[in-house]
Design goal:
Blueprint: H1 2-14, H2 24-36, H3 57-82, E1 86-89, E2 92-94, E3 101-103, E4 106-110, H4 111-117, E5 121-125, E6 130-134, H5 148-151, E7 157-160, E8 163-164, E9 172-174, E10 177-181, H6 182-188, E11 192-196, E12 201-205, E13 220-228, H7 231-244, E14 249-252, H8 268-276, E15 280-283, H9 297-311, E16 320-322, H10 330-337, E17 342-344, E18 365-366, H11 373-386, E19 389-394, E20 396-397, E21 406-407, H12 409-422, E22 427-429, H13 432-439
Parallel strand pairs: 1-12, 6-7, 13-14, 13-19, 13-22, 14-15, 16-17, 18-19, 20-21
Antiparallel strand pairs: 1-2, 3-4, 4-10, 5-6, 7-8, 9-10, 11-12
Helix pairs in contact: 7-12, 11-12
GO biological process, one term: carbohydrate metabolic process
InterPro entries: Cu_amine_oxidase-like_N, Glyco_hydro/deAcase_b/a-brl, Mao_N_sf, NODB_dom, Polysacch_Deacetylase
Protein name: NodB homology domain-containing protein
Length: 441
């Protein structure tokens, strides 16, 4: 047997394949199986032990290659079984009673499991082999008319809010359940979809997902901090933050809350609803008429105290403030400390973690209608590289962006989509008060 192993050892070195010296015993065992069952055919005659020394190199290569392929396939199967693809909806792992399936590179899931997690309803039309998904009450015209010829087609159809969804990987029935591509379903419902390769998870959002303490592991953080309390936040920014699941802080000028008059500011009901939907409400002083550093001690105290009092009649807590005009000094900081846990100023700086002073938070960039995506991205990437807290200051979000401090929704969406694509393991989106709680540890 030793002579036999030495012979095989020599043959492997003569073959232009990767040698596996540690598997020589396996090769011998495999050849013994051939001998005891069907003959191992060479060009001359059935296999005998003497033929070991005349096996051609090509045949030896087949044996070794077969062992390699078998080992790779086996290890891949074990890895796949150990780490199935998971589905995370609004920060919570969704647990359909069957795992997701990857077909042609696309993740498929039972339609009802995903749709209902996103607040939609599902109806199955067996006669037309059609899955209807709809939000709110189904309208009559949402049923999607099918011709008599089409109704006989064997393929499954996916119709969302009256529109048929076409996909490279069509819906299909698996064990009596309708399965659909997750991205097609979620995006048609207005939700954001991201693939987290490190966790092998599909992340879907249609609500703001504020983090827990367990989500922070020393990575970079990012905050979108809006000033003034403009109603364009409610109309254009809030839906985008919900689509990508990214938190926000809106610093409201308490004395300019809309009370029925046609103004550009939020009303109390909008502020309350925003807070219920996950937005932190901060203060931006009571009047925002003058810089806080120019006020007397009495007027300064009024601006800080009255703003908090008015806003806390609408929402439970107001714990942070965005400094008007970024006019800030140690006297103002001491006054702020009486009413707020944190204050954000503008100095074009990142925040180091842990924080040096939570009552003097820096803004990395103030976004205007002259700011480009690349400029914002540069600040985000810098925070990731240095594991810093990047606060982005914004004001109005308006398709017309007529004012210097108004930007178009398209730019905001591009930035939010970029942050979401990075994954929360690289950069954790937070509102101001959560950022202070996490970075202050």
């Amino acid at each position: 047997m030793n002579l036999l192993i030495k012979a095989i050892h020599r043959l492997i070195f003569l073959c232009p394949v990767v040698p596996i010296r540690t598997n020589l015993q396996q090769i011998v065992k495999s050849l013994r199986l051939y001998k005891n069952s069907e003959p191992f055919q060479t060009r001359r005659s059935p296999f005998t032990w003497l033929d070991w020394f005349v096996i051609r190199r090509s045949e030896m290569r087949k044996i070794v290659t077969g062992l390699l392929v078998g080992a790779i396939v086996s290890s891949t199967a074990v890895a796949s079984a150990a780490s199935p693809t998971t589905l995370v909806v609004n920060g919570q792992e969704s647990k359909p009673n069957v795992p997701l399936q990857i077909i042609q590179g696309r993740a498929l899931a039972p339609v009802r499991a995903v749709a209902e997690d996103l607040g939609a309803a599902v109806k199955w039309d067996d006669a037309h082999r059609t899955v209807y998904v709809f939000t709110g009450k189904q309208k009559k015209n949402d049923s999607f008319d099918l011709s008599e010829t089409e109704s006989l087609a064997p393929a499954l159809r996916l119709v969302i809010n009256g529109k048929e969804i076409k996909s490279e990987v069509p819906p299909r029935l698996i064990n009596g359940r309708a399965w659909v591509p997750v991205r097609d379903l979620a995006e048609a419902l207005g939700s954001g979809v991201q693939w987290n390769a490190s966790k092998k998870a599909v992340w879907i959002t249609n609500k703001i997902v504020n983090p827990s303490a367990n989500d922070f592991n020393g990575q970079a953080m990012i905050t979108f901090s809006y000033d003034d309390g403009l109603d364009t936040f409610y109309d254009f920014a809030l839906p985008l933050h919900e689509k990508y699941g990214i938190p926000a802080t809106d610093n409201v000028i308490a004395g300019k809350i809309k009370d029925g008059a046609r103004t550009m500011y939020l009303d109390a009901d909008q502020i309350k609803e925003m807070n219920n939907r996950g937005v932190e409400i901060g203060s931006h002083s009571y009047s925002h008429e003058e810089g806080l550093t120019t006020l007397s001690d009495k007027d300064l105290d009024f601006e800080l105290r009255e703003s908090k009092a008015v806003l806390e009649q609408i929402v439970p807590k107001v714990q942070t403030i965005g400094i008007p005009f970024s006019m800030y000094d140690k006297r103002v900081e001491a006054a702020v400390k009486k009413y707020y846990k944190a204050a954000r100023n503008f100095e074009h700086l990142q925040n180091e973690v842990p924080l040096e002073d939570k009552l003097w938070l820096h803004t990395a960039i103030a976004v205007t209608n002259e700011t480009t995506f690349d400029q914002i991205k540069q600040r985000i990437d810098q925070a990731i590289e240095n594991k810093q807290w990047c606060i982005i200051m914004l004001h109005g979000i308006d398709p017309d962006n007529r004012d210097l401090y108004e930007i178009k929704p398209a730019l905001l969406e591009k930035v939010l989509a970029y942050v979401a694509s990075l994954g929360r393991e690289q950069i954790l989106p937070v509102n101001t008060i959560d950022g202070v709680s996490l970075a202050g540890k």
